[in-house]
Amino acid sequence: MATGTHTVEIPTDVQAVWDYVSDLEKWATAVPAYKEHEIISETQSIWTFEGNVKGIKKTIRAQVDITEWNEPANIKFELKGLSDNFTGSGHFTAQEANGHTTMTCTVEVHAGGLSGAMLTPIIKWAVPKVASRLTESIARKIAVFS
After folding, report:
1. CA nearest 122: which of 49, 63, 30, 66?
2. What's the pLDDT tens digit per position in 52-83?
3. What is the pTM of this model?
């Protein structure tokens, strides 16, 4: 299993952070290697990512299911690979203090099946970077829009 956690401080109140991260349309495009997404329902979407790993172009499709919406401080989600055998989960948390909000994003991914042994080293390298880049990108966008 690979885990990535990243925390940022955003110079705005927790409600502004919630208003941004509770809308999948706003932050889906902030995910590294994002190509496209399709909203299935209020709690389910399909995301497509495309990137290069050691010169090999790879497209990955994943189902994202929101499992908890706890305004204004917590969103939990689960991931399921549609193009590859992997599962995962993650969450956003936000805590306000002194007019600033500390936001943390955690993502965990587990590769399964026969391809899991090949995917695990890549996932262990990529997941921390994805968590960091996603969190930083969302923080920059929130700072601009609030």
Report:
1. 49
2. 766 778 888 999 999 999 999 999 999 999 98
3. 0.87
Give the Cβ contact number of residue 113 at 10 Å: 12
Q: Are 65 and 43 in contact (CB under 8 A)?
A: yes
Q: How many C-beta atoms lie closer than 10 Å to residue 35's C-beta?
A: 14
Q: Quote the pLDDT of residue 81.
A: 92
Kindly write down the DSSP assignment for every residue of 39-94, as one continuous string. E-SSSEEEEEEEEEETTEEEEEEEEEEEEEEETTTEEEEEEEESSSSEEEEEEEEE
Q: What are the DSSP calls for 100-118, one per residue?
A: EEEEEEEEEEEE-STTHHH
> For residue 98, what is the enclosing H or E element?
none
Q: Which letter does DSSP use for residue 112 in this model?
A: -
pLDDT tens, residue by residue, 70-116: 999 999 999 999 988 899 999 999 999 988 999 999 999 998 876 77
CB 52 within 8 A of CB 135: no
Q: What do you get for the CA distance between the two ends of the chain, in Å? A: 36
